[in-house]
């Protein structure tokens, strides 16, 4: 595999992202506001119980979990469904299909640039701030490595889900509706809005069998435990690996099948 | 701008609305999926509270049904902005491409004409879900029922809806100065998620900000107190209709100020 052509796309993505400095500032302001609301909300929620720990999560744990979930969201949300949907509607997809690399790979690597910028400008600062504010409540050890591996798998899983949903746009001509349904389902069932630890037991069992929890819950749970036993690490990463492989295959197959369906109006 | 009667504008609105609906009906699948998506978002909000309250007894002294009342109230008062002012999202594209100039040449109010062009039907799904939640919470709380209460509800819901309209108008109008107002709009859209929490969870600084600077506390919290806690209604609740009108008027002036300095793209 000639990596150079892919890294060129990464570079283009970084340059593109750095062009929009004002929007970046507004994005940071928005995240900050979200963090403030989350902080006060959960403080009020924890004030209503006598104990410090609820379902194994302290207030600090919950805060770290939710704040980093938001930082991950900036990282994972690629507006891929919009991109695919718009390209189908405008007909630009024809040009992308003619590019000398598979469409799927082209999309992934065009976004890889924004992974880099998001990591350095959103995730890392958030991580450091949270780490300082909570007085080192995030354990810094072997868990960081598991977290990193887990995030990479989460990116692959999330990308595949987006790709499947984007493919659905070939049939429906609806982007907003499809995308919002996906977003709602993923954010709720992955534990990004409320940590999975607080879910009622039977619901949690169901959610555990779905791929969504591998996106936010898996990496964040691995991060929050200083010395997780091997069994937890293996089962979490194993499950993620399974979903990453399965969804990659499914999304690729679904796309290839659907491509025969495509009707492009002009372009 | 010559003064024309309300009836004149209502008649025009009816005509433009009919055209918009006709064009929407040609994308029936999109319409259905979008409505389902809208309801999904609302259900997810409902489920989040359900999950939260399965583990925690209250938020800052607010019980499950009181929080649901706030949530329902916010959904209903956020319906008008969704239904009648959705064209604000396209404003930046019209301004950027230069098509905005067409609105400047009509002998009717510029702001009215621009907003009247789009009626977003999926907002009606939110209205139905919001009303359902509101009535459910109302009955469960045993709030009683009288004509006066219904009148109060209608007045307070209508004026509360002006707050989000004002915020969105102002956010959309920023595109007359900065190129891409999407991030500003997106940021403001996130505010409406915070409207469903009681303002008392914040400390005094943020209570002040969310009351007078970004007045989201007037979307649901202050107006609902009139019905929810009729024994101790703060002054701010009673003046919330005035606040709504003032903010709407200010945003209208701001929007028009931007629109009138618009000089086209020269094409």
Provide the succession of SSEs of chain A. Answer: HHHHHHHHHHH
Low-confidence stretches of chain B: none
What is the CA-based Rg of chain B, rounded?
Answer: 20 Å
> Which bin fits the share of residues in helices of chain B?
over 70%
Major sheet of chain A: none
Give an account of the 3D structure:
- The complex is a heterodimer of chains A (267) and B (267).
- The model of chain A has no long low-confidence stretch (mean pLDDT 85).
- Chain A has helices at 3-19, 21-47, 59-76, 80-90, 93-97, 103-133, 142-172, 176-189, 201-208, 217-224, 230-259.
- Chain A contains eleven helices and no strands.
- Chain B is mostly helical.
- Chain B has one domain (6-261).
- Chain B has 14 helices and no strands.
- Chain B is globular.
- Chains A and B meet through α2 and α8 of A and α2 and α10 of B.
Task: Note the topology.
The complex is a heterodimer of chains A (267) and B (267).
Chain A lengths: L2 H17 L1 H27 L11 H18 L3 H11 L2 H5 L5 H31 L8 H31 L3 H14 L11 H8 L8 H8 L5 H30 L8
Chain B lengths: L5 H20 L2 H28 L8 H14 L1 H6 L3 H10 L3 H4 L5 H7 L6 H19 L5 H27 L8 H13 L9 H10 L7 H8 L6 H4 L1 H22 L6
Quick gist of this model?
By secondary structure, chain A is mainly α. Helix content of chain A is 75%, strand content 0%.
Jot down its keywords.
heterodimer; A: 267 residues; mainly alpha; globular; B: 267 residues; 14 helices
């Amino acid at each position: 595999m000639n990596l150079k052509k892919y890294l060129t796309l990464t570079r283009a993505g970084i340059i593109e992202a750095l062009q929009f400095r004002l929007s970046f500032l507004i994005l940071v302001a928005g995240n900050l506001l979200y963090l403030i609301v989350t902080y006060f909300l959960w403080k009020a929620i924890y004030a209503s119980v006598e104990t410090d720990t609820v379902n194994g999560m302290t207030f600090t744990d919950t805060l770290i979990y939710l704040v980093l979930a938001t930082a991950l969201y900036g990282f994972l949300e690629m507006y891929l469904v919009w991109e695919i949907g718009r390209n189908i509607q405008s007909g630009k997809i024809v040009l992308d299909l003619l590019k000398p690399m598979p469409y799927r790979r082209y999309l992934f690597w065009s976004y890889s640039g924004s992974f880099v910028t998001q990591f350095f400008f959103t995730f890392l600062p958030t991580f450091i701030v949270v780490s300082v504010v909570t007085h080192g409540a995030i354990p810094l050890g072997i868990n960081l490595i598991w977290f990193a591996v887990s995030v990479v798998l989460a990116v692959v899983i999330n990308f595949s889900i987006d790709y499947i949903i984007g493919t659905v746009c070939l049939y429906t001509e609806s982007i907003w509706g499809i995308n919002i349904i996906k977003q709602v389902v993923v954010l709720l069932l992955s534990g990004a809005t409320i940590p999975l630890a607080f879910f009622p037991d039977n619901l949690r069992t169901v959610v555990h069998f779905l791929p969504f929890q591998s996106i936010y819950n898996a990496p964040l749970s691995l991060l929050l435990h200083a010395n997780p036993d091997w069994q937890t690490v293996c089962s979490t990463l194993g499950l993620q690996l399974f979903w990453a492989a399965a969804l990659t295959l499914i999304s690729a197959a679904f796309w290839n099948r659907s491509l025969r369906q495509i009707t492009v109006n002009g372009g | 701008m010559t003064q024309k009667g309300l009836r004149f504008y209502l008649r025009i609105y009816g005509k433009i609305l009919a055209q918009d609906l006709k064009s929407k009906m040609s994308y029936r699948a999109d319409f259905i999926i979008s409505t389902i998506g809208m309801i999904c978002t609302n259900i997810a909000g409902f489920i989040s509270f359900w999950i939260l309250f399965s583990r925690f007894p209250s938020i800052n002294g607010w019980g499950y049904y009181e929080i649901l009342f706030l949530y329902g109230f916010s959904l209903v008062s956020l319906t008008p902005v969704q239904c009648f002012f959705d064209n604000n999202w396209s404003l930046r594209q019209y301004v950027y491409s230069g098509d905005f100039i067409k609105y400047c040449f009509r002998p009717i109010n510029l702001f009215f004409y621009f907003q009247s062009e789009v009626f977003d039907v999926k907002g009606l799904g939110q209205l139905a879900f919001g009303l359902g939640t509101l009535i459910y919470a109302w009955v469960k709380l045993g709030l009683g029922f009288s004509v006066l209460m219904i009148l109060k509800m209608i007045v307070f819901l209508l004026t509360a809806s002006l707050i989000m309209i004002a915020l969105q108008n102002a956010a959309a109008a920023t595109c007359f100065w900065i190129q891409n107002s999407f991030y500003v709009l997106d940021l403001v859209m996130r505010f409406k998620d915070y409207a469903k929490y009681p303002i008392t969870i914040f400390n005094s600084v943020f209570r002040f900000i969310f009351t007078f600077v970004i007045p989201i506390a007037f979307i649901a919290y202050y107006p609902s107190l009139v019905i929810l806690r009729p024994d101790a209604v703060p002054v701010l609740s009673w003046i919330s209709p005035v606040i709504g009108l003032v903010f709407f008027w200010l945003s209208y002036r701001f929007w028009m100020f931007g629109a009138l300095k618009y000089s086209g793209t020269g094409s």
